[in-house]
Design a protein that fits this description.
Elements: H1 4-12, H2 16-30, E1 55-61, H3 67-78, H4 82-90, E2 94-100, H5 102-115, E3 118-121
Antiparallel strand pairs: 1-2, 1-3
Helix pairs in contact: 3-4, 3-5
């Protein structure tokens, strides 16, 4: 049985040029080609997408012709009265709901957009 420790020691002592010559000689003798194995690329922060866990629904703007419909929608969503819903629109932009899941935030946003509001998820 060969002495592997001695072989490893001998290979470790080779210079770069001697290592290249050894590889070429072994390729010729065995009739094979060595393949360059590309190191695995790890994702950088630029390539990693961060999924938000919670969203805020922010009403940014309501066109003048859509205020009544948006107020009615706000009353249904919040359970508040007419005056409180109107006061919300007077304080634009405002956060209607915080820490919602993506699906809940999208549902709320869609209801307000259908009524005519301009809404952002943050």
């Amino acid at each position: 049985m060969p002495n592997f420790e001695q072989i490893i020691e001998d290979l470790s002592a080779l210079s770069i040029q001697e290592s290249i010559t050894l590889v070429a000689t072994l390729e010729n003798r065995w009739g094979v080609e060595s393949a360059y194995v590309k190191p695995m690329e790890l994702p950088t922060l630029e390539h990693v997408e961060v999924q938000k866990a919670s969203f805020d629904v922010v009403v940014v703007e309501v066109p003048p012709g859509r205020r009544i419909k948006v107020i009615k929608t706000l009353r249904v969503i919040t359970g508040k009265g007419l005056r409180e819903s109107k006061n919300l629109l007077d304080a634009l932009p405002f956060t209607l709901a915080s820490d919602l899941s993506e699906t809940d935030a999208e549902t709320l946003k869609n209801r307000l957009v259908e009524a005519g509001a301009i809404v952002e998820l943050r």
